[in-house]
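Ticket #4471: structure export looks truncated?
Reporter: QA, pipeline team
Priority: medium

Steps to reproduce: submit the single chain below to the structure queue and open the exported record.
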Amino acid sequence: MIKKGLKVKVLTGKDKNKEGEVIEINRQSNRAKVKELNMVKKHIKTTKEKKGGIVSKENFIHMSNLKLIVEKSKNKKTEAKK
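Actual output as written to the record:
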């Protein structure tokens, strides 16, 4: 199961074989955002508080296109000798 903060690998699309960390999950549409992957250009309108322009940001990727990366633990348990 993919959760926020875990490392995943992209299986298909323009970012195929790239790895990143999950930063947001949308359970209703079964999609997740991965840090610095699937970047899109977003046009932002200028407001009193913020300056407008073209901003790059992450977009959602369907969970079926992601694979969870299991990191191997370095601590090996040794069997007790009888």
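Status: closed, not a bug. The export was complete when the record was re-opened. Leaving a note from the reviewer for reference: The longest strand covers residues 19-26.
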